[in-house]
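Ligand: zinc ion. Inputs:
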Amino acid sequence: MPEGPEIRRAADELATAIAGQQITKIFFAFDHLKPYASRLQGQTVRQVTPRGKAILTRFSNDLTLYTHNQLYGRWLITADGEYPDSSRQLRLAIHTGDRTALLYSASDISILNDAELRQHPYVSRLGPDLLDPGIEAEQLAERLSGKQYRRRCLMGLLQDQRVMAGMGNYLCCEALHVAGIHPQQRPADLSANQLRRLTDSCLHLVRQSYETGGITNDMERATSLRQQGAPFEACRFHVYRRQGMPCYRCGTDIIKDRLCGRMGYLCPTCQRQ
Ligand SMILES: [Zn+2]
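Predicted complex:
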């Protein structure tokens, strides 16, 4: 599933294509959304913003389009009126006279007014967004060590969007590795320094991944691997999808294991329990 950085990049692309533009035509595949087409035609797209793993597209009549791509949803931007050859199900098309934004395969789509948006079960419960420049590591460390969270396994806790928004499986495995912490530990097991190192890694890696299109590996190493001809996927990570390969730090084989109910990757030497 795409994580915070991928969603923000998709939202950026969508904003570049349609923000500030007037909607000439809008198509909804779902019957319950069709009545909104006439209310949105002629409106201007005010803003496109990511919220956790969802994207909010706000219109000049104060309605907001909520879309959550889950596993398969995908946005595609084309020149206006152009549809690609695709076997995917088209769920939504926003035409602006210059560009068309197409959403395929997503099923979690709704149109909300402000009151509905405030009470939305996903949006209203999101924790602080790691890509929000105002969020700091100290603040996150305090949050994780709070009574509500300190006894929960980190592998699940760091991916819970209500705790903090933006990390999924790959970012969680990578941040724990960089901080040298075993995924089955809990905030209560860590020293203040370890917890701070962990929240520093979370923030740093989420932001680096957003800026680089998905690289959480050390940038110097990733660049050097690329120059040696390695494919992009093979350069991106410290541990994620690297089971059986040597840890960059100590040479131990990376393992893949079920950790607190989720599949994850770690170095058993650098990340001891
Ligand atoms: Zn190691």
